[in-house]
Amino acid sequence: MNKYITILIICISVSLIPAQDRRATMSSGPIDYIKEAPVLPLCAVPTLTDEFIENHMDRMKTEYPDVYRRMQIPPVRYKSVNVGDIQKFWVMVDDGSGGTKSEEVVAEMLAKGSNTAIWADTVELSSSSNISPSLAEDYLKLLEESTPAGSRDSSKGIYDLELEYFGSPPNYDGDGIVDFLFADIFSGAGGYFTGQDQTPQSGSNQRDIVYLDTHSSVSYVQGTLSHELQHLIHYNYDKYESVQFNEGLSEMATIVCGGDYISHGHYLNQADKIGWSWVSDAAHYAMASLFTVYYTEQLGDGAIKEFIQLNAGGNPMQDWMAFDQLLTNHSVGQTYREWLVDWFTANYLDYKSMNSKYGYDIWLPMRARNTAKHLSGKVESTGNSLMNYSPNYIEYQSSVDSMEITFTATSSGTPHYRSIEFNDSSAVVYTLSNGAKHLVFHGDTLKVRNAVFVIVNQQNTTMSYDYISTGTDASGWTGFQEIAHDDGTADLFTTSDGSQFGYLGWGNGNPGWGWGVKFDPKMAINQLVEIKMVIGFDQEFSGSGTPAEADKDFNLHIWNVLDSEGNVEDVIDPILWSTQRTSNTGGWTIIDMTPYKDKLSNLGEIVVGVVEDDTIGTYFAMDNNVNGENFTYAFNYNNGGVLDPLQNFSISGTSLDGWNYFMRASFFIADATVPDLKAGFMQNSVFTDELNLYIIGNSIMGVDNMVITAKNDGFETILSSQILAGNDSILVTENYRLFASGALDINARGTFLYGRDNIDTTFTYNVNYTLAKVGGDIVSRDQNYLMKIPENSLSENSYIIIGSDDMNPSTKIMLNSLPEKLSPVYTVSPVGKELANGARISMDVGRNDAKDVSIGYWDGETWRELNSVVTDNGKRIEGVGTHLGQYTLIRRGSGMPLAVDEDLLIPTEYALYQNYPNPFNPETMIHYDLPKGEFVSLVVFDILGRELVTLVNQFKPAGRHQILWDGNNAKGASAVTGIYFYRISTHGFTQTKKMVLSR
Question: What is the pLDDT of residues 498-512, one digit of tens each?
Fold first, then answer.
């Protein structure tokens, strides 16, 4: 179908949306036809108070008197110390009963520079993964030569940067060296500094020294170097700084030096639940860090050293007194109590474009979480509490315009109330009075869309308050959704001849012609509440011959599309809409649809139509391709009575494809979906510690509604997520990095974007860092899948991950190709990695008959069947796999056979493997290999060498075998808790291994 239009471009002089100065008129005539977006090891400094040290020394005196006597001997002083020298140091370690004790360690100097030296406990050197001579050299370079690209100056080391931004260390022993000692320090501490070493007290090492734990990761140590050095420097100026400021500055030191700092999400996720108290957990460290980052950004980097070195009358100033002095020095005009209100506001908004006080330059993983969120303007809330120096955030997402709200303190102290109200063009900030009614109203022309009330406790005590609001009742709805196909700024359309215009319409003399824009509320339970558009009428443009007093009106339609030809039907009778405005301001024209709510509920995909009711033309502002597709239609072109996509038209040879009209539709919606989440991951095949994680929902997800954390080997990280392009039910987090072998738990907590039901789901995996030369085992968390990777089967050392029923965007074809589900699908990653020497796979058959099933492997196109052998006990089947990937149980004979080198099926040498699990209760599996068929004996002995039970005593063919021991002796009686030995004997091979039964 060809369409023809003549174009008339008219210059205008009225003020429109930015960049708009022309309109175009489409009328009958020629037109071109167009074809078809933790649990963390932490710093111990807060624990090591004077009282703690005193109690610690008293305990050493009474419980370890011999050690205490040696602690009173002053440390030996050396005139010079070089790499390779050995010295003794006192270190705080675990006492074996949950407390601490001092222990003398023998340490070797591994590296030395101009200002720093690296030492390590000689006992730890052989087993620690974070310290060695080569790593010590790396740490020394970080300290004295260069820092990562994110530092304030990457050409400087940590020491020089902290000298510049924080100050000088004490140099207690006069050698000008700060010592960094790696040792197995007490549990829960990744590092520490103690002022005891700056004194001649018993047990003091009497030098500038900080301690680092040998069980932390290398990346954690790199951040801890700068963190603990700040504590040492700070002690030089103020021995008694409050913990919040001291720890915040140490975290700031890590940021200044470009290290991995603690995620501020740990605090922002629960900012309303944490007062200005101190608990040595990730949330409080993140709080202290973020407060320091905020005042550093607001006052400048010089404020760091200035705060540390503040004093009055020769005595150091601490805590809030020092901070007030800092604000005075910078002529801020606020006390710390007023400053807190702005800080809490910045944590919620993070929007410096609105006001430089209300945001950050540093990237935040999330904004502060709401305390309460309301869709309805009619709310009564009582018994709300505030911890000391803490905020609450009350958000009204809709129904807020013309709402009245009153906040009333119910405690002896009164909170500070701040209102941030967002209208169609800006945000307005108000301070509210206690007990006084506040009207949310910005005038007849500016509708308030949403509002946030920041309630702040400015005192060091708890407070409580109530609030009541009277506005539109939207109870029952769980979300408010404005659907937009524009980016908020209209664009100029440029034709092939260089002409430009900003508004488009049919022009005068086309009654019955119109335009439509498509909207999909996505949720089945919904109500259309508002339509808004940016429009101009013919008489509002310069050069128009239409009288100024002529009608400004049109017929508003809500259509269902009936077919692919563009035929439509009205959902409600057309509404004749009109306005008495005097001019076009370029702003939004808002149409309230709530009077028609009974007929505009539970809509599917609709088209909102504007149809000319007379001969006076209506024009629309335009936007270019913000969503990558067309949502705008011409209606009744050439009296055809149907919708035609705008992409089918061009003006002066320039296509309208990708252009949409400025029209938006807003809905109340309710999500009644019962949450059912899945998770998955995709692992980097080269850098195997890097993963992309996926959380897959059965409804629409929202980044701000869901907190995703990953915990690996006890180290918890709050992850930054985003909606997967093209699928708003999937959240993806990119480039998460593993820390170590052990458990990996992915937790998703929150609600769907428009949901009411709380979600708290954890997905579990196992991780094993496998050395290629050694090989290793990877077992599922349910212990039903085991892969034994032999030596030299992997081409390089790799993190191997296993999970069950893993989901990601690429698994749909795999699952659809599975005829029936007989067991979980286990994913062993990196998927597709070839195993040179294969791997032995063992799977529990569950309720299936072992003779009827095989192990299936997904090769990317089809399910392959492994040559599967039933184990002696009939509970498991075994086979040899050639790749890492997806494995499950399939019906025997249902899959294409997996081609396997016969040499992989028959072992080349005898082997007795460590039992699994170990320790165990009540049963364990023992594997062994036979390179040839022969008589085999496998016997279990107790610790005294007495035979307990014979598990195997017969001829066995060549191959890989396993046997289950149920923890009973030969008479069927349960063996007691203890150490046992199992021994295999053949004609030419004998081997014994130890196992532990723990009942």
Answer: 888 889 999 899 999
